[in-house]
Amino acid sequence: GKRYVAGVQSLLVARDGMVYGGTSVDGFLFWYDPFDNTITNLGKPNRQSNIRALAEGGDGRLYGVVEEPGGLAHLFAYVPSTRSFNDLGVVASAFPEYWIGHSFGAMATGLNGELFLGESDDISHLFIYYPPLR
Questions:
Q1: 2-39 core/surface letters (b: 16 or more CB in 10 A; e: else)
Q2: Dihedral through CA 68, CA 86, CA 42, CA 27, nearest 10?
Q3: Nearest of 12, 5, 113, 1 to residue 54 by alpha carbon
Q4: What is the pTM assigned to this prediction?
Q5: CA trace torsion 98, 114, 53, 77 (10° rounding)
Q6: For position 86, what pLDDT does the model report?
Q7: Of the four listed, 42, 80, 91, 124, which is most buried by Cβ atoms within 10 Å?
Q8: Beta-sheet strand order (sheet of 8-13)
Q9: Residue 121's pLDDT band (boundaries 50, 70, 90)?
Q10: Distances from the Cα of 33 to the Cα of 9, 74, 86, 130, angstroms
């Protein structure tokens, strides 16, 4: 019954040409195959309702930020080979001072596989996440 209010909140074209997207309202991750013209719902990474940003990591995983308006954002990882999610928790920093990120509006992958996450609050910070080496 939410099809009239749900929408695409974030999109990412992966290196293999596939398109990943995150929805508002329910926070589902989906995959669009432009070669077959099909859409596949991959599920919910978290109970929260809004996938604000997506980025492809250097480790083959898809990373995203899911959040509730007025809540604390969570970073998640999607593993395409197993079609599984990992909730990586809230985004926080202890250097140079302790700060918890609440709302994010952008994410990008750096040259060495690090993720840059841009806050979209009134007092915004840039966070850097270094995925574990595999």
A1: eeeeeeebbebeeeeebebbbbbeebbbbbbeeeeeee
A2: 0
A3: 12
A4: 0.90
A5: -90
A6: 95
A7: 91
A8: 8-13, 19-23, 29-33, 38-43
A9: confident
A10: 18, 26, 23, 29
